[in-house]
Specification:
Number of helices: 15
Helix content: 25-40%
Distance between the termini: 19 Å
Bound molecules: adenosine-5'-diphosphate
Largest sheet: 8 strands, mixed
Radius of gyration: 21 Å
Oligomer: single chain
Number of strands: 14
Length: about 400
């Protein structure tokens, strides 16, 4: 069978990540990243087979990066592209699944920009640039929020007046949907269940972090909310704080909303707690040397993660297993162990030997006998985007 090709694009405000994926194939044919766009120091780097290259980009705009990308894609593609799959952060309530992009989808992504002011406009820039460069290929939007549209109202509503929801769409949406969907699908396959069958807790722990309760392939609850700030402690985001903190900071320090947003999104989390870095690997090294801030940051991160996972159990009728993914979830045996140390009350128990020796990049079971399952499952959001893009074209 011919393997169709998909170009996956994740366009942020200053970067474009891309990958050329063959259908049902594990590794990308090529992948890379345009970075520091708009800064005058923009570059484009990519790897394919055993080669790795980097060039500088003259004016460093998104469109320039896309134009530079086109000959590279053509060079590495052994057949025409079947689709371009775009990651789009906020689909609001409009989108419960991936969509082929047309004028109305573009309008709806634009309309959701108020809910994701940093992300959706950047995603749109990438879509417009890619549509100019690849005008004859189907472009598909895959939304971070879509997987969570199955949440029941009691999970997605805030206890705020109805009008704020009805008129202004203020509710919980959740993010990282492609990752939670991908790893829970993998878990069902790996454990011999029917596709999508299972009651899973998923912990996506990267720079952004979220938990999710997934029942038979449907998200029932997740820790992020209206924006990705809600929930867990993250690299630089605070996660949950007292909602009165804004008013308190305004009254006592005279801070305005922009200053407070900066604090909660960019200066808090692991970085704020440790006073050192947002990078978990570096924190673990510093903690091993006795750095008090690093030790505290890891402890708070793990305890709050355990608390969130407990609360997600309320969305499930039973627990088949807990899945760790993302850069921290996949690689940090210490974070997994410290988190599980707080979770004995629901019988989750690690096999410490399996946890400490879990191989990089391979799905691995790390639970002790008699415990609900615990797995480390490498996420692959690009693959999920490629699969959803192709699946859509078949309809
Ligand atoms: P993003 O959300 O940007 O995709 P990643 O999923 O790559 O981020 O996760 C980045 C995080 O993973 C960083 O905090 C990094 O330190 C952490 N990480 C990566 N490898 C390890 C490791 N071996 N041990 C501990 N933390 C790690």
């Amino acid at each position: 069978m011919t393997q169709r090709l998909v170009l996956v694009i994740n366009c942020g405000s200053s970067s474009i990540k891309f990958a050329l994926r063959r259908e049902a194939d594990g590794k990308p044919l090529m992948s890379g990243m345009a970075e520091r766009l708009g800064s005058g120091r923009a570059s484009l780097s990519w790897r394919a087979a055993n080669t790795q290259q980097e060039i500088t980009l003259a004016d460093g705009e998104h469109a320039t990066a896309m134009t530079a990308l086109m000959p590279l894609i053509k060079q590495h593609a052994d057949q025409p592209l079947s689709a371009v799959g775009h990651r789009v952060v906020h689909g609001g309530e409009h989108f419960t699944r991936a969509q082929q992009i047309d004028a109305s989808v573009l309008d709806a992504i634009q309309a959701n920009a108020a809910l994701a002011p940093l992300h959706n406009p950047a995603n749109l820039t990438g879509i417009h640039a890619a549509m100019r460069v690849f005008p004859d290929v189907a472009h598909v939007a895959v939304f971070d929020t879509a997987f969570h549209q199955s949440m029941p109202a009691h999970a997605y509503r805030y206890a705020l007046p109805e009008a704020l929801y009805q008129q202004y769409a203020i509710r919980r949406y959740g993010f990282h949907g492609t990752s939670h969907q991908y790893v829970t699908d993998q878990a069902s396959k790996l454990t011999g269940r029917q596709p999508e069958e299972g009651a899973w807790l998923s912990a996506h722990l990267g720079n952004g972090c979220s938990t999710c309760a997934v029942l038979n392939g449907r998200s029932m609850d997740t820790s992020m909310g209206l924006t990705p700030l809600e929930g867990l402690v993250m690299g630089t985001r605070s996660g949950d704080v007292d909602p009165n903190l804004h008013a308190h900071l305004q009254r006592t320090l005279g801070w305005d909303l922009m200053r407070i947003e900066q604090l909660l999104n960019r200066e808090s989390g692991l970085l704020g707690l440790s006073g050192l870095t947002n990078d978990m690997r570096q924190l673990e090294e510093a903690a091993a040397q006795g750095h008090a801030g690093a030790i505290l940051a890891i402890e708070v991160f793990c305890y709050r993660l355990a608390r969130s996972l407990f609360s997600m159990c309320a969305a499930l009728p039973r627990l088949d297993g807990l899945l760790f993914t993302g850069g921290i979830g996949e690689n940090s045996a210490k974070v997994r162990a410290r988190t599980l140390a707080h979770m004995a009350a629901i019988g989750l128990k690690l096999d410490h030997n399996a946890n400490d020796n879990a191989p990089k990049g391979v799905a691995t079971a790390i639970h002790a006998q008699g415990s609900p399952m615990i797995w480390v499952i490498p996420t692959d959001e690009e693959r999920q985007i490629a699969q959803e893009s192709l699946a859509l074209l078949e309809h």
